[in-house]
């Protein structure tokens, strides 16, 4: 198809929530009506039911629902006594948590909210996930800090290299591993689900996620009864008994309606995640057939497709390519009403609000390179094959 004809291609939205809702409309409306009839809107029975179902799906003993994925990160850190931000008068602390600069802002802001210091380490270029080797370097470079935890992010729906992180933990007794699994419900590493790999894990159910609420919602999972009990207490103003506040907690309860919707969707999630993997495989085939792929692994030679580690089962929350002239390509696709997104255009260490951490451009070259090259394409279970063909044809036309 000549490039001037691309304007006749059909629009392809980045996401289309209506398609999923139309398939489960009656189930969702019945669940919402049941909650409205019961009038149990806060921590109703549907919350504990979803918590049990989600914990079982993650192969852990405990799930603690909360108001958002951001709150889940804070709850996990605070429950583990990182930063001591729950004290009435916070003491000076040198607690630190090492994480990725190539992530959503909440990964770092939750560490600060907990009263600890975020320390960044660079990513692996193939998976975009935090590099355990870079974490080891960061630990050695900050001997004056008490590194309490590492917070790897399972970015785009693929688990970080957990074998390397467990080896790191063995070499540093007392170091906690907390998963930022916000984008990875249903992903696995060596067959073990995200949410069961670390000492605790944090999920987001923001509407764009592969397991999504109809608003904000989050979850902490853990095998530890101590962490679970403390997280449950902290999400409800520090109460173990009503109106008796043992600590300074927060209001981060999971709405009953959100829990009811999430439990409905959780039943469908394995099939939806498989559809995402099938769509990713089809994208790969279409790009290969279009002759758009880099032979060297560098974008100077063409597109670089998502890499799946052989020990990981990816859920493709996002299908993210590396693209030459990324911003020009995105504008070209936007003009043709083909949705895309950049996750994330500016690494955290270069964000203005985190300038006090003292990082500069060039400190994390792999993260900075990824920020300049990544482009997320339309990806949701209901995406049609003809729509994928439209996306690939438009991209082929741009580079032609």
Explain this structure.
The chain has 400 residues and is an alpha/beta fold. The chain folds into 2 domains: 21-263, 3-Layer(aba) Sandwich (Aspartate Aminotransferase, domain 2); 268-399, Aspartate Aminotransferase, domain 1 (Alpha-Beta Complex). Helix content is 38%, strand content 14%. It is built from 11 helices and 14 strands. It has helices at 17-38, 45-57, 69-79, 106-113, 132-141, 162-171, 225-234, 256-289, 326-335, 365-373, 385-399; strands at residues 62-66, 95-99, 117-120, 146-151, 176-180, 188-189, 192-193, 200-204, 218-222, 239-241, 244-245, 312-313, 319-322, 374-377. Strand 4, helix 6 and strand 5 (176-180) form a beta-alpha-beta unit. Helix 3 (69-79) crosses helix 4 (106-113). The longest helix is centred in the last third of the chain and has 34 residues, at 256-289. The chain is globular and about 65 Å long.
């Amino acid at each position: 198809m000549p490039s001037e004809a691309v304007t006749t291609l059909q629009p392809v939205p980045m996401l289309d929530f209506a398609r999923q809702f139309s398939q489960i409309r009656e189930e969702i409306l019945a669940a919402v009506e049941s909650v409205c009839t019961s009038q149990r809107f806060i921590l109703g029975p549907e919350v504990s039911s979803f918590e049990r179902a989600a914990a079982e799906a993650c192969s852990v003993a405990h799930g603690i629902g909360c108001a958002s994925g951001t709150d889940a990160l804070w709850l996990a850190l605070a429950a583990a006594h990182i930063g001591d931000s729950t004290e009435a008068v916070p003491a000076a602390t040198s607690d630190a948590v090492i994480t990725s600069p190539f992530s959503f802002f909440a990964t770092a802001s939750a560490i600060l909210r907990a009263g600890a210091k975020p320390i960044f380490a660079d990513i692996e270029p193939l998976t975009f996930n935090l590099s355990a080797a870079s974490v080891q370097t960061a630990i050695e470079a900050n001997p004056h800090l008490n590194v309490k935890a590492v917070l790897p992010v399972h970015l785009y729906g693929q688990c970080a290299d957990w074998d390397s992180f467990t080896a790191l933990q063995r070499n540093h007794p007392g170091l906690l591993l907390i998963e930022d699994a916000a984008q990875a419900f249903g992903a696995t590493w060596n067959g073990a689900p995200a949410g069961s790999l670390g000492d605790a894990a944090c999920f987001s159910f923001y509407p764009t996620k592969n397991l999504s609420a109809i608003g904000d919602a989050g979850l902490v999972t853990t095998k530890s009864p101590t962490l679970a009990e403390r997280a449950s207490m902290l999400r409800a103003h520090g109460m173990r008994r009503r109106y008796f506040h043992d600590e300074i907690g927060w209001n981060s309860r999971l709405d009953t309606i959100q829990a009811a919707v999430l439990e409905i969707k959780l039943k469908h999630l394995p099939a939806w995640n498989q559809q995402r993997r099938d769509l990713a495989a089809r994208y790969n085939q279409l790009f290969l057939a279009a002759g758009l792929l880099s032979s060297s692994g560098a974008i100077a030679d063409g597109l670089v497709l998502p890499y799946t580690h052989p020990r990981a089962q990816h859920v493709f929350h996002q299908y993210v390519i590396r693209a030459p002239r990324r911003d020009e390509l995105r504008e070209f696709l936007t003009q043709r009403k083909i949705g895309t997104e950049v996750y994330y255009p500016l690494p955290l260490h270069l964000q203005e609000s985190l300038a006090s951490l003292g990082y500069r451009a060039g400190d994390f070259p792999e993260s900075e390179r990824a920020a300049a090259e990544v482009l997320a394409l339309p990806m949701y279970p209901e995406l049609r094959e003809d729509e994928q063909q439209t996306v690939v044809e438009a991209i082929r036309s741009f580079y032609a």
